[in-house]
Amino acid sequence: MTAFVDFQRVSLAYNAAQERAGEYAVEDISLSIGKGEFVAIVGPSGCGKSTFMKLTTGLKSPTRGTVTVGGNKVTGPLKIVGMAFQAPNLLPWRTTLDNVLLPLEIVEPYRSSFRARRAEYTERARALLATVGLDGYEHKFPWELSGGMQQRASLCRALIHEPEMLMLDEPFGALDAFTREELWCVLRDLWSARRFNVVLVTHDLREAVFLADTVYVMSKRPGRIMSRREIELPRPRELETTYTDDFNTLVLELRTQIGH
Ligand SMILES: Nc1ncnc2c1ncn2[C@@H]1O[C@H](COP(=O)(O)OP(=O)(O)OP(=O)(O)O)[C@@H](O)[C@H]1O
């Protein structure tokens, strides 16, 4: 397997004082993620999951070690990434459609051609919104949408520039259990159709096992990778899968590794 994301002995201290004191947010992380792989990162609060994301996307440079993405050493923020977070963070004065179009207005190479190609980009945004079940909501404002709908729109915004990698930090954490499961299926279908890489940070072990090819468990500070678990449940996975013994055995195994 050729690695798409490769961490070689990566440690990060947030500042010089922490480095001198040997206080690392993440320590000695080595891992390889294949092209198109769906990875979930789980672990206790503060273990360095968000730090891992920042290192992967180039928002932070390692204190030690190297991060490589697509064969290139990461030295600054990557453009091939889309991101979504626990809060949908849609701009309240923009419609759903205009929120989804936002990255194309900001990020090159789309930005310079945005005016000329607006009709084409709008069509792309509409098509994407339709795949997540938001057709008919293009001209609604965020406050006219439910939390689950806002998060669907946020996923579309993260994917509109067709990124090679989707970074998700607790994207469904604020949703009720039923809506969350619906959104798992939305994400599963988007990923199955496009096969971008996903790094999903989550506290929800069922979510990790349902969606991911591989689950990494991180330890408490300093964050280290404690284990790597391949999820060999057959695909396509339906919600019924989550009631099977195989599924629950995997969830329990991960729970035991995380401890208290
Ligand atoms: N900008 C910063 N400056 C200094 N320390 C930081 C900074 N950001 C995070 N840390 C520290 O690094 C460690 C890892 O933080 P991080 O946010 O990556 O954890 P996390 O696993 O994402 O947490 P949670 O699950 O609570 O979101 C924590 O001890 C945190 O206090």
Bin the strand percentage. 15-25%
Low-confidence stretches: none
What is the residue-averaged pLDDT?
Answer: 94
**What is the distance, rounded to the nearest whole angstrom, between the alpha carbons of the first and last residues?**
35 Å
Order of helices and strands: EHEEHEEEHHHHEHEHEEH
Bound molecules: adenosine-5'-triphosphate
Q: Could you tell me the radius of gyration in angstroms?
A: 19 Å
For the largest sheet, list the strands in their spatial order: 6-7-8-3-9-10
* Number of helices, counting only DSSP H or I runs of 4 residues or more: 9
The percent range for helix content is: 25-40%
Largest sheet: 6 strands, mixed
Protein name: NitT/TauT family transport system ATP-binding protein
Organism: Pigmentiphaga kullae
Domain ABC transporter: 5-245
Keywords: ATP-binding, Cell membrane, Membrane, Nucleotide-binding, Transport
Task: Tell me about this structure.
The protein has nine helices and ten strands. By secondary structure, it is α/β, with parallel strands linked by helices. The protein has a domain at 87-163. The protein has a six-stranded mixed beta sheet, with helices on both faces. Strands 2-1-4-5 form a four-stranded antiparallel beta sheet, with helices on one face. Strand 7, helix 7 and strand 8 form a beta-alpha-beta unit. The two termini are 35 Å apart. The structure holds adenosine-5'-triphosphate. Residues 14, 25, 45-51, 221 line the site of adenosine-5'-triphosphate. GO terms for molecular function: ATP binding; ATP hydrolysis activity.
